[in-house]
Design brief:
The protein is an alpha/beta fold. The chain has one domain: Aldolase class I (TIM Barrel, Alpha-Beta Barrel), CATH 3.20.20.70. It is about 40% helix and about 20% strand. The chain has eleven helices and eight strands. The chain has helices at about 1-5, 25-30, 50-65, 75-80, 95-100, 115-125, 150-160, 175-180, 190, 200, 205-210; strands at about 10-15, 35-40, 70, 85-90, 105-115, 130-135, 165, 185. Helix 7 (about 150-160) links the parallel strand 6 and strand 7. Helix 2 (about 25-30) packs parallel to helix 3 (about 50-65). The radius of gyration is 16 Å and the shape is globular. It starts with a helix and ends with a helix. The relative contact order is 0.17.
Length: about 210
């Protein structure tokens, strides 16, 4: 159990909507904790210029704390802002095209829902990580599938490609995912949608992951 704790890391995803003049400071406070290993900017129904502006302000902060900056869905904008990588859903484009455009050093992730088959295909096409979810009830989005712990357990056994668990995860329900060896747990609502400061919310994972 202790060894698996050392292997599980936090993958932080932004809220659906952010204020460009406020969020950079908030993100810096969270990254300053040293508990976040990856950050994804996920802005739905947002104009391109806003995503570009936000990215240009957030990328230097991520670099300061050595946290990769991943852009959700938008391969074209990931290329434009020189993001560290892109996360693609099933309908967001080809992993092969993403690799061709972003290069060999880019981080490319793929949503695989509850499907080991999709994950295998993503791995064969060169994905750097695969994401399974949703594991728990979530208000962030309407999930395409309900994921099972056994999917992660099987994946960890059959593949060396890192996997991310996502969907309603918080510090109280993530222990079983950590036990089966998930590489990253993605957190969204439990960090942004509560009365606590985000940097305080993120610290609730400290004893679980360290």
């Amino acid at each position: 159990m202790d060894n698996k704790k050392l292997l599980t890391k936090l993958y932080l995803i932004s809220p659906d909507h952010i204020k460009v003049n406020e969020f950079p400071k908030v993100l810096e406070e969270v990254l300053k904790t040293g508990l976040v290993s990856c950050f994804q900017l996920r802005l739905k129904s947002t104009e391109d210029n806003y995503i570009i502006s936000a990215s240009k302000q957030l990328i230097p902060i991520c670099k300061k704390y050595n946290v990769p900056f991943i852009l959700n869905d938008r391969l074209d904008l990931a290329y434009e802002v020189k993001a560290d990588g892109v996360h693609l859903g099933e309908d967001d484009g080809s992993i092969l095209e993403a690799r061709k455009l972003l290069g060999t050093q880019a981080i490319i992730g793929a949503s695989c829902y509850n499907s080991k088959h999709l994950a295998m295909e993503a791995g064969e096409n060169g994905a750097d990580y695969v994401a399974f979810g949703a594991f728990f009830e979530t208000k962030t989005k309407i999930p395409k599938s309900k994921a099972e712990i056994t999917t992660v357990k099987d994946w960890v056994y059959i593949s060396n490609i890192p996997c991310v668990a996502i969907g309603g995860i918080n510090s109280k329900n993530c222990e079983e995912l950590v036990k089966v060896g998930v590489d990253f747990i993605a957190v969204i609502g439990c960090i942004w949608n509560n009365k606590e400061q985000p940097e305080i919310a993120i610290k609730k994972f400290e004893n679980i992951l360290v």
